[in-house]
Design a protein that fits this description.
Chain lengths: 193, 193
DNA sequence: CAACGATGTGTACGCTTGTACGCATGATTG
DNA sequence: CAATCATGCGTACAAGCGTACACATCGTTG
């Protein structure tokens, strides 16, 4: 067959118009986080992300050499955001009591509030199990969280508190019958006293 | 070409000898758990499991109609085993104090002791996020755990304890610097008092 | 002891995936 | 203003996947 297209033929454009899109990379990161939240790391394929961000396949593979690099990048961004939120809350708290309140708020608002954040955290946990690059991300995140808590609590308490927070997140994630903010606060108070 | 094999030709056997293997299904379940522990749910393909169990591909697809059915089956078995271990420990504990010790042992031995169990738990968590069949498994598991703890603790404490255990498991899973059994016990005591 | 059905086995098919690659384009830079 | 190269874009390819299916075998059952 004569595959060559006739110049004047009325067939649809084969090449889309080239777009000027200076921060496409950043947009891809955010889109990837959306895709992971909705379909899991397993659903985060180059094609799915490209489709969601409305860019051609070649664009995702251009900006991220491999899927592993993509995951490392986007999870780093996510962890960074959550860690920063906690650090701010801890820095702003004048005393131990206020810190506890702020932590409870951090849990309810930043973590448990949106299913999105919740899912992303757990997806990161399991993805990190087998990808060294992601282990680094989770460890840095844990390190920063603990450090932030140590602004108001001794190291042992901070560590236990951090573990409890992790558990509450996971519990909320799995439970049909989520704990109320008061119940969450009650648990936090208990382990700090 | 004449694809028909000559009867007397010396070519190697196309069909392996048929094996009598009455509890192959059970063996497949255990093998699947091994594969998941090592390569994750993502690596738990029909082919990988068949290879690991040394059975042909057709055998896994015969015993498990789909991958989803397989996951539901094997995770149910796993959760059953861990839940039973906890229930036994709680039943055998004469009082609250002993129950705490038993819980600490459960954590150190059954959960944190083997990376295998640890990984399987987290894999289940994230897999359950998107598969209704697995949600049921995790919820039953949580339900049983809480029920077992309530043999010795009031419902509120049981719930908080359960969350803390979950968090300690996850923390251990991610941490390069795991908590000692004493530290674990310290955290447990703290939240129950 | 005969037939039947559960189980064992090999293979084919269509699909999606990651990745590589060639070419187009236009903002930047000298 | 010309050259360059980062970025945009489409496509091809091999590999691995789930699933379906036809046929072989033999313990079980009537």
């Amino acid at each position: 067959m004569t595959a060559e297209a006739l110049p004047g033929a009325g067939d649809e454009r084969v090449h889309r118009v080239r777009r000027y899109d200076p921060d496409r990379r950043q947009r891809l990161v955010d889109t990837a986080l959306e895709v992971i939240a909705e379909h899991g790391v397993i659903g985060a394929t180059h094609r799915a992300i490209a489709r969601a961000a409305d860019v051609p396949l070649g664009s995702t593979t251009y900006h991220f050499a491999s899927i592993d690099e993509l995951l490392a990048t986007v999870f780093t961004v996510h962890a960074e955001r959550v860690a920063q939120a906690l650090e701010e809350r801890m820095r702003e708290a004048p005393d131990r009591q206020a810190a506890l309140d702020a932590l409870a708020r951090h849990l309810s608002a930043d973590l448990l509030g949106s299913d999105r954040t919740l899912v992303l955290a757990v997806e990161l946990y399991v993805a990190a199990a087998r990808r060294p690059a992601l282990r680094v991300v989770t460890q840095d995140w844990m390190e920063r969280s603990r450090r932030a808590l140590e602004l108001h609590f001794d190291p042992v308490t901070a560590r236990e508190l951090d573990a409890l927070v992790e558990g509450l997140v996971l519990h909320q994630f799995l439970s049909t019958d989520p704990m109320t903010p008061e119940q969450v606060r009650h648990a936090l108070v208990r382990i700090t006293r």
